[in-house]
């Protein structure tokens, strides 16, 4: 009898979770969700006290290394209750900057924080690299378990990367790599994959000098209330803005210009309550790529990317406009992209969801609304469940809503889908879409519960995928 009672208890516990999934039936539902979410995402407040880095010995000549001056100013500001650490006009060379709680790093108009090209200036910290946990170089600006932190002002953050510094480590000749120079990430990348598969403790996966895993630019890790506004970010070693396992992330009016390898613009990983608005992307990879960890690490932590708003952004250049994946093993839900504009000769897809059966996870409730696209090469909407090697964790993609999409000059397809027969893309809705200039209206395999209303491709109505 006890065995049956336990069975029914487990059944009852599981019912609410399975009942949570309800596909939208109109755009008004996600629009209301967006309004409610905006009220939850707020800017941190800071004490009205300034700490000028030049008062701590900083010299803005572009040559003097100011790592200690930044450290002292930030620690003083933090210890006294917070405020602004102010970077005045000038070019201030520095190594890694660690942001502490209640500190707003204010980069004044006319100022540049120029980051060192010497890897010795970046201590080994607990981080993520391509969705895998490890000990590696600190990001250029880093925080761990901090609260109320910000980077603001109309100045410049210059990662100082080029084909002779950081970029060639990717191993591609177009970024300066050749057999005669040391530095290639491929062996270390493979080793990190092995460590993850073996479930080696993350703090024992030690990299750094001699391994050539490039650091990201800005990475608050397990932090709350992160705000960023107005700065120009350029020349990153790798991903540009990469909050990991953070909550309440608000970014506005940021400009990212960075054309190195893997120079994604904004890669929030396993974060909750994220809002990026009125920002500009001119990047060497995806403009926005939402993530939640790779394979064993993503599934082990089990934190989805949750409640993200991408609003009124311009994707000037980049491979993907709004991308979910591929490091998405923790899943993603409630992703809202509204009022964005994208147009680039390098743009492959406007909306892309990429995952694989080595990832698993559920990607659901994606709202792509009021989007204007100039040109793209492959597809306006792309679903891919076969992005990397297969595994034993079949992913789920469901409740994807695309409305008010206009494309001036499409690429090969309007819609492209590559899914599993056992896990079709489910509840895909496209309403009021006008897509011109495509070669082939669609190429899809396994889709279920598709709704197409007023979808015009090359001047002709598209009513189904048959």
TrEMBL record:
<dbReference type="InterPro" id="IPR006626">
    <property type="entry name" value="PbH1"/>
</dbReference>
<keyword id="KW-0456">Lyase</keyword>
<keyword id="KW-0326">Glycosidase</keyword>
<dbReference type="GO" id="GO:0005975">
    <property type="term" value="P:carbohydrate metabolic process"/>
</dbReference>
<dbReference type="InterPro" id="IPR012334">
    <property type="entry name" value="Pectin_lyas_fold"/>
</dbReference>
<comment type="similarity">
    <text>Belongs to the glycosyl hydrolase 28 family.</text>
</comment>
<keyword id="KW-0378">Hydrolase</keyword>
<feature type="signal peptide">
    <location>
        <begin position="1"/>
        <end position="19"/>
    </location>
</feature>
<dbReference type="InterPro" id="IPR051801">
    <property type="entry name" value="GH28_Enzymes"/>
</dbReference>
<dbReference type="GO" id="GO:0016829">
    <property type="term" value="F:lyase activity"/>
</dbReference>
<dbReference type="Pfam" id="PF12708">
    <property type="entry name" value="Pect-lyase_RHGA_epim"/>
</dbReference>
<keyword id="KW-0732">Signal</keyword>
<dbReference type="Pfam" id="PF00295">
    <property type="entry name" value="Glyco_hydro_28"/>
</dbReference>
<dbReference type="InterPro" id="IPR011050">
    <property type="entry name" value="Pectin_lyase_fold/virulence"/>
</dbReference>
<dbReference type="InterPro" id="IPR000743">
    <property type="entry name" value="Glyco_hydro_28"/>
</dbReference>
<dbReference type="GO" id="GO:0004650">
    <property type="term" value="F:polygalacturonase activity"/>
</dbReference>
<dbReference type="InterPro" id="IPR024535">
    <property type="entry name" value="RHGA/B-epi-like_pectate_lyase"/>
</dbReference>
<protein>
    <submittedName>
        <fullName>Pectate lyase superfamily protein</fullName>
    </submittedName>
</protein>
<feature type="domain" description="Rhamnogalacturonase A/B/Epimerase-like pectate lyase">
    <location>
        <begin position="53"/>
        <end position="105"/>
    </location>
</feature>
């Amino acid at each position: 009898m006890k065995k049956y009672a336990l069975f029914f208890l487990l059944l009852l516990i599981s019912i609410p979770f399975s009942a949570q999934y309800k596909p939208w039936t109109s755009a008004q539902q996600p629009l209301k969700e967006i309004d409610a979410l905006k009220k939850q995402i707020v800017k941190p407040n800071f004490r009205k006290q300034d700490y000028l880095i030049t008062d701590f010995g900083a010299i803005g000549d572009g040559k003097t290394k100011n790592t200690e001056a930044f450290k002292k100013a930030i620690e003083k500001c933090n210890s006294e209750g917070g405020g602004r650490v102010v970077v005045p006009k000038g070019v201030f060379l520095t190594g890694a900057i660690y942001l502490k709680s209640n500190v707003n790093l204010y980069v004044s108009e006319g100022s540049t924080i120029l980051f060192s090209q010497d890897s010795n200036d970046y201590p080994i910290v607990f981080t993520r690299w391509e969705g895998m946990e490890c000990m590696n170089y600190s990001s250029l600006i880093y925080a761990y378990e901090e609260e109320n932190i910000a980077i603001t002002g109309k100045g410049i953050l210059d990662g100082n990367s080029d084909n002779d510094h950081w970029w060639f480590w990717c191993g591609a000749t177009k970024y300066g790599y050749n057999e005669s120079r040391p530095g290639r990430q491929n062996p270390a990348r493979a080793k990190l994959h092995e460590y993850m598969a073996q479930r080696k403790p993350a703090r024992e996966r030690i990299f750094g000098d001699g391994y050539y895993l490039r650091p990201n630019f800005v990475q608050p890790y397990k932090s709350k209330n992160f705000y960023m506004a107005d700065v120009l970010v350029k020349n990153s070693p790798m991903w540009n803005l990469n909050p990991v396992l953070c909550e309440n992330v608000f970014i506005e009016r940021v400009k990212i210009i960075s054309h190195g390898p893997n120079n994604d613009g904004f890669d929030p990983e396993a974060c909750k309550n994220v809002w990026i608005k009125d920002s500009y992307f001119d990047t060497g990879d995806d403009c926005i790529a939402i993530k939640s960890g790779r394979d064993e690490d993503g599934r082990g932590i089990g934190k989805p990317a949750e409640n993200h708003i991408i609003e009124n952004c311009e994707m000037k250049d980049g491979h993907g406009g709004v991308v979910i994946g591929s490091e998405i093993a923790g899943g993603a839900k409630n992703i809202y992209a509204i009022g964005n504009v994208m147009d680039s000769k390098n743009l492959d897809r406007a909306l892309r969801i990429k995952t694989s059966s080595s990832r698993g996870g559920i990607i659901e409730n994606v709202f792509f609304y009021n989007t204007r696209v100039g040109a793209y090469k492959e597809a306006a909407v792309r679903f891919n469940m076969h992005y990397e090697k297969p595994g034993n964790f079949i992913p789920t993609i469901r409740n994807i809503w695309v409305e008010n999409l206009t494309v001036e000059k499409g690429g090969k397809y309007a819609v492209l889908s590559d899914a599993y027969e056992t896990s079709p893309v489910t509840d895909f809705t496209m309403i009021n879409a006008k897509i011109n200039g495509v070669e082939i209206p669609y190429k899809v395999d396994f889709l279920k519960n598709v709704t197409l209303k007023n979808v015009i491709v090359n001047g002709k109505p598209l009513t189904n995928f048959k």
